[in-house]
Design a protein that fits this description.
Order of helices and strands: HHHEHHEEHEHEHEEEHEHEHHHHH
Strand content: 15-25%
Largest sheet: 10 strands, mixed
Helix content: 55-70%
Radius of gyration: 32 Å
Structural class: alpha+beta
Number of strands: 10
Number of helices: 15
Length: 409
Amino acid sequence: MNLFAELKEGLGISWDAIRANKLRSGLTTLGIIIGIVTVTLMGTAIDGFNRAFLQSISAIGSDVLFVQRFGWFIESDEEWVAAERRPEITIAQAREVERQMTLAQAVAPKADSRASVKYKNRSSNMVNVIGTTDQFLLTGGVTVVDGRFFTPGESDSGRAVCVLGANVATNLFPDEPPVGNKIQLGGGALEVIGVLEKQGNFMGPFSADNQVIIPMQQFVSSFWAQPDVQIQVKVNDLRQLEDAKEELRGVMRRIRHVAPADEDNFGIDQQEMFIKMFNRVAGRIAAVGFFITGLSLFVGGIGIMNIMFVSVAERTREIGIRKAIGAKRRTIMVQFLIEAASICLLGGMLGLAIAWPLTLVMAKFMPARMSPLVVAIALLVALMTGLVSGFFPAWRAARMNPVDALRNE
């Protein structure tokens, strides 16, 4: 009998054994079902979380440097106290950076505040109001889908104009076009000249969809007379990013009169640092999740192994008869391995059936989907669990002496 025939025969015998012990087989798969549901949801969640993060973080261009008094990642109280002592970064310093940088394509100061925005009887609360210049169109990674961004003349003069994030525009203007109308913001009326492309809500209240962008001079007169600004620098060429970073550090130290022996009194950040931090956190979450998954599968595998030992003991006489009429050790071993793998695959498919509706619920909060790769990995994990846990019972059955097996009652 060739291997294909052995596999076919083993599959038939295994299926008959599973059907003959439906309740026992079903209970045996519980551990596998829990493990597969966990591994599937974990893989789907990590994939969705990763795509949502990259979609939101894409607005922070990879070729943009961010200068601010506080760095993005402060890891100790001492660092926080030291950062608080740093002098604020002013609009004048941003202008000086723009004047002195040679490797920058655009430089934009950015200051923000929270405020309510009103139009007639509708309002949006806790909107992020950003004061900046016309250069923000390049450094901020924003795209205007309706109307336009403000011009250099409007930026320099502080004209009462604004550009709305997608959610703010939808909330205030559900039934009419926003461009050309005037909203109430900061005690004055501002003309809406543009609406930004929708970015997604992964960043919550900090999402670009929940913001209003106004000229810096308008921001200074309405919200904050001397803001502590962030300077955004878009480099000419991504390949010159490190050179531009060093040039920017030198310019900032010169502008802020930092002595050669002193540390920088500002922080320079970039998108790559954000992604590294996210990957580090996501890696730790995945490690914990996969440990829990591994534990579930280990417990499930032990259960499968025990049931297979029981199955071998119950069918010892059958094994003896098969070996007496010529069945090879390999044939017996393949039969029980197929039975263990079939039980685990059955549990894997039940686990996927449970995970599928849970994934649809998850998709309401993030771009999660059960990809074919995740399904394939889940079934492969179930198959491997069955083969590993069924190996020793199958090996024991294959090595039985046919005479001793036939004497078994």
